[in-house]
Amino acid sequence: xxxxxxxxxxxxxxxxxxxxxxxxxxxxxxxxxxxxxxxxxxxxxxxxxxxxxxxxxxxxxxxxxxxxxxxxxxxxxxxxxxxxxxxxxxxxxxxxxxxxxxxxxxxxxxxxxxxxxxxxxxxxxxxxxxxxxxxxxxxxxxxxxxxxxxxxxxxxxxxxxxxxxxxxxxxxxxxxxxxxxxxxxxxxxxxxxxxxxxxxxxxxxxxxxxxxxxxxxxxxxxxxxxxxxxxxxxxxxxxxxxxxxxxxxxxxxxxxxxxxxxxxxxxxxxxxxxxxxxxxxxxxxxxxxxxxxxxxxxxxxxxxxxxxxxxxxx
Length: 314
Known about the structure:
It is found in: Mitochondrion membrane. The protein is about 70% helix and about 0% strand.
């Protein structure tokens, strides 16, 4: 008799693709709305020099809320929603790569590692230009300049204009760097997110398997999957945060060299500078990863081909 504690991974060939994409876009949008404020805070913490503006995640949250209201926490959000496209490309590449690697290895760790890295490579090629623009929008604030560019309303200290910010930022990037400016930090992004994705999936499955043996047989799989997601996210965040700090500075400050950016960061702030924004990253990752994991696993279950529904224990 099958042990109900064994987690049955739903693979690409088990899915109804139409349901998978429709539900997937809706789920991704809800997740982005919930975690975007912490993404903005993390970006500002990583870009600021020392603690010149904010003393931590909570301090940044309060100051942004007081200065700009709730809308200040969602600056650049509309541009960032275009990453929904890259999100769907990510999951498609991940699932298809798992299927491909299965012809050569049955190891779930190998499949997860290769698929996670490949999916991130594809997604980042689409995401980086969107990230570059949205990050510069995240830097818009009243008072002291944070990034390289400021929208017209900020230059005189006036109220930030409601419309045209994105167009203004795009023009400034084109004028300063040309088309290459939209891929500034591309290599740094790959060096951040490919390892992050490649590490997250194996650790996620590892933690889920370990918890499945600790939980009672009748415990729903979704419970320890929901716990495993944040554990994997925290592990991946700690391992890749140094590169994430460098990536953010390269993109926002217009740096041209990863090595020079690293040296400057070490000279100004020492090794602890490589951990800037880590708490915000983990705080945003914990609830978002729970939502992502529960949403993604539920999405795959909802998207199962009808004839397979009764054959799975959840």
